[in-house]
Amino acid sequence: MQAFAYATPATLADALRAGAAEDAKYLGGGQSLLPSMKLGLNAPASLVDLGSIAELKGIQVDGGKVVIGAGTTHAEVSGSAEVQKAIPALADLAGKIGDRQVRNRGTLGGSLANDDPAACYPAGVLGLGATVHTNRRKIDADDFFVGIYTTALEEGEIITAVSFPIPEKAGWQKFKQPASRFSLVGVFVSKGPAGVRVAVTGAGANGVFRATELEARLAANWSAGALAGATVSASELNSDLHGSAEYRAALIPVLAARAVG
To answer: What is the DSSP string of 134-187?
Structure first.
């Protein structure tokens, strides 16, 4: 790993100023960026650590929504009584990310900004029809995820919070790759203010996506039985040493039915 400058701003304004330096990168929990730097895949001239910024942290329930600061860790989301009561499926998702170390260091904002194609949080955000708040604007979940490791965030834009509408029903199922604990396939389903949504991570060749055919079935009949015989095309799914596109396609409706319960 090459040498780099390191800043620990205490406010968002200070972070934005530090991040304006040439070839600077923002650091959330560091669970994705630091390993890539160790491998030589990423070599920023400076890191701007967002971990000390209080205004990026915290959880509150407000007007039918759960608002979670971008700097809130997975463990904090999982252990939050407010999240467990309002959106238990989201607490369940957070509690199954990685291992204990990852959950205690990794953050909601860091996960979303990185947009790993097998990460769990993108499925929760897309599956609940959440809104991503930044220092500049609000971005609907359907517009936020652009492709693998690619989001709608612009240069110098920082995620500050995510607001999740509280659904009537929601569920999460993850078929994990046992070594990395990323989702080989993960499916988040919900029925609520954003309608019926089924979001899939770990399977799409272009990252997280909505399974619209499964959504249509569940909109007509919210039950596991409504997904009996449902199929998902493998044409736009990825294959790797852990599973073929066809295998992932077969898993998606099975996991969706389990998530519905």
So the answer is: ESS-EEEHHHHEEETTEESPPTT--EEEEEEEPPSEEEEEEEE-TTT--EEEEE
In DSSP terms, 190 is beta-bridged to 170, 197
Question: Measured between alpha carbons, how far is 249 from 233 in angstroms, rounded to an integer?
Answer: 6
pLDDT in tens, 182-195: 899 999 999 999 99
Give pTM, 2 decimals: 0.94
Range of the domain at 35: 1-55
Q: Which residues pair with 176 in a beta bridge?
A: 183
For the domain that residue 191 is a member of, what is the CATH number?
3.30.390.50
User: pLDDT higher for 3 or 87?
Assistant: 87
Count Cβ neighbours within 10 Å for each residue of 45-54 and write b for 16 or more, e otherwise: ebbbbbbebe
φ, ψ dihedrals at 37, nearest 5°: -70, -40
Q: Which of 128, 165, 27 is nearest to 120 (CA)?
A: 128
Positions of E strands within the chain = 5-7, 24-27, 46-49, 59-62, 65-69, 131-134, 138-140, 145-147, 150-151, 159-165, 169-176, 183-192, 195-201, 209-210
Which one is predicted more confidently, 113 or 34? 113
Q: What is the CATH number of the domain that holds 44?
A: 3.30.43.10
Total number of domains in the chain:
2
Give the mean pLDDT of 244-258.
Answer: 98
Residue 44 has pLDDT above 90, yes or no: no
Q: Place 148 in a pLDDT band, splitting at 50, 70 and 90.
A: very high
- Is residue 248 a part of any domain in this protein? yes
